[in-house]
Amino acid sequence: MRHAHTIHGHQRHYGWDNSLAPAARIAPGESIEFDVIDAAGGQLTRSSRAADLERLDFAKIIPLSGPVHVDVAEPGDQLKVTLLEFTPSGWGWTANIPGFGLLADQFPAPALHLWNYDAHALTPALFGRWAKVPLKPFTGTIGLAPAAPGNHAVVPPSRVGGNMDVRDIARGTELLLPV
């Protein structure tokens, strides 16, 4: 699919901030492609090991691509975002990061699993010899900057979006966000 605009991987920032200059301006109904990186901000690679998790720079996690200015959108409006497609990379990671996450107190040791999969077929990925995990690409973080000035965290999510990690915010989803 050809899109009217592209946000490239280097056009990223950290946190919602309505004072940032737009990386792109679009009209309602136009499509935009985002060239994004993973939640670790590219700090993990196909050759990473569990020890690398302890060296993560938390100032570089959950990068945001953009921002995008939508012409005629005004405070009080709802912005409908339709997720048209995802182009998976063929690899990814799952980790237990010391001191981070819901169960941090119960799992203090770092653990890292690297996933390799067929990016075109999206057949289930193998987890060791015994398990297969179905793949369904989804967006982890999506939203709009809040009206309040300053840099705002995307974790936890808020009424304007954020790091939601909801597997059903996937291809074909129509997401309504308050402007």
Structure description:
The protein is an all-beta fold and 179 residues long. The chain has no helices and 14 strands. It has strands at residues 5-7, 12-13, 24-26, 32-34, 64-65, 68-70, 78-82, 91-96, 111-116, 125-127, 131-133, 141-143, 161-163, 174-178. The mean pLDDT is 92.
The gist of it:
With 179 residues, the chain is mainly β.
Distance between the amino and carboxyl termini: 27 Å
Q: Tell me the strand order in the biggest sheet.
A: 1-4
Q: What shape does the CA trace take?
A: globular
Which stretches are low in confidence, meaning pLDDT under 50 for 5 or more residues running? Answer: none
- Range of strand content: 25-35%
Helical/strand content category: mainly beta
Amount of helix: under 10%
From the alpha carbons, calculate the radius of gyration and give it in angstroms: 17 Å
Major beta sheet summary: 2 strands, parallel
Instruction: Report the order of strands and helices.
Output: EEEEEEEEEEEEEE
Quaternary state of this entry equals: single chain
Task: Give the overall pLDDT as a whole number.
Answer: 92
How many strand segments? 14
Number of helices: 0
Entry keywords:
single chain, mainly beta, 179 residues, two-stranded parallel ribbon, 28% strand, 0% helix
Secondary structure layout:
Blueprint: E1 5-7, E2 12-13, E3 24-26, E4 32-34, E5 64-65, E6 68-70, E7 78-82, E8 91-96, E9 111-116, E10 125-127, E11 131-133, E12 141-143, E13 161-163, E14 174-178
Parallel strand pairs: 1-4, 3-6
Antiparallel strand pairs: 2-5, 7-14, 8-9, 10-11, 12-13
